[in-house]
């Protein structure tokens, strides 16, 4: 392509960086970075995000951070990519600090953000912090269906606190089946927990399932 009349564009380099990331080809990725600067494509947000991802995946987390800090405009993908990069390198505190900065910058986190943060907590052995961030995920408006899917695939083994948070969210949104599933799992971890049983009663009352509420 470089020797033809058909010149590369920023989509070309996004694809190239993705290929370098997938194969761990740091040298080729760095060469692509030089070409991107030379051609003036480095001002594109997608290119910045792809560079951060490539350097993170290829083990050059300092280069990824340099690009992140150099950027003037960032979107949620930018923050997610850098947080995930820290998680992959076992840098739990750095990932958490970046997440807190993201919140201060009024960037709304999504499920991918929390996946990166919780993964960092898991690798760093930060169990209590992981529970706090899961609760924060619920508070930031993740719907029960999304939260349930997240729990099923989360990198931190869900404990009673996590299931309790999901049950509370289900009660607020009237998501009965997900709430029942959350209650059952919490009761497996904390048999006879009165708080769980009360939440289950409140969930049934929320949707007018009076017979089920009475049986609890």
TrEMBL record:
**Sorted alphabetically, which InterPro entries does this protein's record hold?**
PPR_At4g14850-like_plant, PPR_rpt, TPR-like_helical_dom_sf
The record's section on PROSITE patterns has: PPR, PROKAR_LIPOPROTEIN
From what superkingdom does this record's organism come?
Eukaryota
Q: Which residues cross the membrane?
A: none
Q: What are the alphabetically sorted keywords of the record?
A: Endonuclease, Hydrolase, Nuclease, Repeat
The signal peptide here is: none
Q: Name one GO biological process term.
A: RNA modification
Q: Give this protein's Gene Ontology molecular function annotations.
A: endonuclease activity; RNA binding
A Pfam family matched by this chain, by name? PPR_2
Sequence ranges of the PPR repeats: 44-74, 75-109, 110-144
Note the PANTHER family from the entry.
Answer: PENTATRICOPEPTIDE REPEAT-CONTAINING PROTEIN
Protein name listed in UniProt: Structure-specific endonuclease subunit SLX1
Natural source organism = Vigna unguiculata (Cowpea)
């Amino acid at each position: 392509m470089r020797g033809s009349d058909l010149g590369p564009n920023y989509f070309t380099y996004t694809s190239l960086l993705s290929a370098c990331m997938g194969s761990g080809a740091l040298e080729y990725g760095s060469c692509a970075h030089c070409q991107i600067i030379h051609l003036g494509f480095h001002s594109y947000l997608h290119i910045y995000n792809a560079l951060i991802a490539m350097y993170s995946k290829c083990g050059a987390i300092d280069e990824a951070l340099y690009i992140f800090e150099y950027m003037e405009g960032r979107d949620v993908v930018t923050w997610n990519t850098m947080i995930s990069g820290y998680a992959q390198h076992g840098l739990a505190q750095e990932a958490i600090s970046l997440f807190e900065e993201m919140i201060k910058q009024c960037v709304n986190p999504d499920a991918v953000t929390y996946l990166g943060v919780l993964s960092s907590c898991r690798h760093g052995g930060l169990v209590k912090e992981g529970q706090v961030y899961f609760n924060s995920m619920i508070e930031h408006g993740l719907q029960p269906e999304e939260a349930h899917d997240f729990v099923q695939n989360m990198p931190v083994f869900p404990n009673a606190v996590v299931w309790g948070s999901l049950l509370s969210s289900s009660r607020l949104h009237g998501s009965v089946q997900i709430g029942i599933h959350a209650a059952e799992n919490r009761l497996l971890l904390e048999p006879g927990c009165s708080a769980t049983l009360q939440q289950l009663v409140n969930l049934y009352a929320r949707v007018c399932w009076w017979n089920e509420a009475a049986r609890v």
